[in-house]
């Protein structure tokens, strides 16, 4: 018998049954079971070893605490599911909780990590090794509290203030990444001042550890294999949405998590950029451009763009020209990447689209990437403003290099994007998928 016979419920056994249920669920957590034979075989073929996840989790927690101490904060309260993933390496209905604040996490600068999770979800972080305590979350969004939300926020704030008081050593400065004004006001009433936690987390996430880079490499391999699946089904007559679904399928089959956008377009819909995929049937000879924006295995982002020709024909002269300009821009701008170069110098030296394509340019030249798009975001030099932050590239940062080339008022456009690691001696392009228009 694989399963025990269910005996009549005995209230005296409730605690033991809850404990056994939690242990069973924790042992079957997706992060414990791993990513499966398909993904593991592809990673083995690519020669990418597994990251040391316990070491990676401790590294991340230390990065957060270093920033908290640098900024003189008692701790940080996290609501963004990507930030909670960074702090705890645990997940729970990531897209749903991104717009329904029902899960939050407190990280003390000196003290515990306390995860306030959704009802009956204590098992979802037992694997992490860095969560010291799990409590049920109190949500005071209107969905739950209605016109009584102002009462619920008081019940929410008390335990947060107690944690700050207990572990802050007299420091009542709390960093928070996202919080509605009612929460800020109630914490202030309890003596806790709220500060910019988004800045703390962006700085913490900036430099990747060797294990994070291994995880990112694996996520990119999974993304590019899913891209190959897209290329295999690209044919005249397929709709943009059907083609985009293949990327989703390939990502999920390999343990990936979600895709942040729907940026795939074909033919005349490739110019201007930022058309979301549609029911349009792709025609022979069309350019098909897309941006993966994919959150893959380990929660890492693989943010790659390619442009392909549909059908078995040869690209036209205009298509070749646009593609060549984009490839040259990407190559030039990658070559500039090295530790120590300032953000301003990087963009000042970067190649930009020619005059007839410049008005339709992509909004940025470079942006950081990790568990999602991250700081910094670097505009074209002509778009640099007094409030654009400067800084320097550092070893261990990962940036995406962007190019969109389409003539203003033109028929089609080309989107290319590569993911690049800043190394001690320069850079390494992590993305490997061919840049060619044709298969």
Quick structural gist:
The protein is of the alpha+beta class and 439 residues long. The chain has 14 helices and 17 strands.
Written overview of the protein:
It is built from 14 helices and 17 strands. The longest helix has 24 residues, at 210-233. The protein has 439 residues and is an alpha+beta fold. It has helices at 14-27, 30-33, 36-45, 53-70, 81-88, 94-99, 142-145, 149-167, 181-189, 197-205, 210-233, 240-253, 317-335, 343-349; strands spanning 75-78, 104-108, 113-117, 133-136, 173-176, 193-196, 258-259, 264-266, 287-291, 294-295, 301-302, 305-309, 366-369, 373-378, 398-406, 413-422, 427-429. The mean pLDDT is 96. Helix 4 packs across helix 10, helix 8 (149-167) packs across helix 9 and helix 11 (210-233) packs antiparallel against helix 12.
Secondary-structure blueprint of this entry?
Layout (H helix, E strand, L loop, with lengths): L13 H14 L2 H4 L2 H10 L7 H18 L4 E4 L2 H8 L5 H6 L4 E5 L4 E5 L15 E4 L5 H4 L3 H19 L5 E4 L4 H9 L3 E4 H9 L4 H24 L6 H14 L4 E2 L4 E3 L20 E5 L2 E2 L5 E2 L2 E5 L7 H19 L7 H7 L16 E4 L3 E6 L19 E9 L6 E10 L4 E3 L10
Parallel strand pairs: 1-5, 3-4, 5-6
Antiparallel strand pairs: 1-2, 2-3, 7-10, 8-9, 9-12, 10-11, 13-14, 13-15, 15-16, 16-17
Helix pairs in contact: 4-10, 8-9, 11-12
């Amino acid at each position: 018998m694989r399963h025990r016979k269910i005996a009549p419920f005995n209230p005296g056994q409730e605690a033991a049954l809850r404990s056994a249920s939690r242990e069973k669920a924790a042992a079957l957590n997706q992060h414990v079971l791993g990513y499966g034979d398909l993904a593991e075989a592809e990673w083995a073929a690519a020669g990418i070893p597994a990251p040391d996840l316990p070491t990676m989790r401790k590294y991340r927690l230390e990065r957060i605490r270093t920033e908290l101490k640098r900024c003189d904060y008692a701790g940080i309260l996290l609501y963004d599911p990507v930030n909670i993933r960074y702090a705890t390496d645990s997940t729970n209905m990531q897209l749903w909780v991104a717009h329904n604040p029902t899960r939050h996490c407190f990280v003390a600068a000196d003290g515990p990590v306390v995860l306030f999770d959704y009802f009956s979800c204590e098992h979802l972080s037992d694997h992490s090794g860095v969560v010291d305590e799990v409590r049920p979350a109190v949500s005071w969004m209107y969905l739950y509290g209605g016109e009584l939300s102002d009462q619920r926020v008081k019940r929410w704030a008390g335990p947060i203030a107690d944690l700050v008081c207990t572990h802050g050593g007299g420091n009542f400065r709390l960093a928070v990444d996202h919080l509605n004004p009612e929460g800020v006001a109630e914490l202030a009433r309890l003596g806790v001042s709220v500060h910019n936690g988004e800045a703390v987390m962006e700085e913490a996430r900036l430099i990747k550890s060797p294990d994070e880079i291994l995880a990112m490499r694996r996520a990119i391999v999974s993304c590019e294999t899913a891209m190959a699946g897209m290329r295999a089904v690209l044919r005249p007559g397929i709709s943009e949405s059907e083609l985009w679904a293949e990327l989703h399928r390939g990502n999920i089959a390999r343990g990936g998590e979600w895709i942040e956008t729907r940026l795939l377009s074909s033919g005349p819909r490739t110019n201007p950029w930022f058309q979301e995929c549609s029911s349009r049937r792709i025609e022979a000879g069309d350019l098909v451009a897309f941006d993966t924006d994919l959150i893959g295995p380990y929660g890492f982002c693989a943010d790659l763009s390619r442009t392909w020709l549909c059908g078995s024909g040869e690209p036209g002269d205009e298509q070749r020209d646009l593609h060549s300009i984009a490839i040259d821009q990407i190559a030039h701008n990658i070559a500039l990447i090295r530790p120590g170069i300032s953000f301003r110098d990087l963009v000042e030296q970067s190649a930009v689209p020619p005059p007839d394509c410049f008005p339709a340019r992509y909004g940025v030249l470079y942006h950081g990437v990790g568990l999602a798009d991250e700081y910094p975001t670097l505009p074209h030099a002509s778009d640099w403003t007094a409030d654009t932050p400067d800084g320097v590239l550092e070893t261990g940062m990962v940036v995406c290099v962007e190019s969109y080339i389409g003539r203003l008022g033109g028929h089609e456009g080309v989107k290319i994007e590569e993911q690049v690691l800043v190394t001690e001696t320069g850079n390494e392009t992590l993305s490997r998928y061919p840049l060619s228009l044709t298969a």
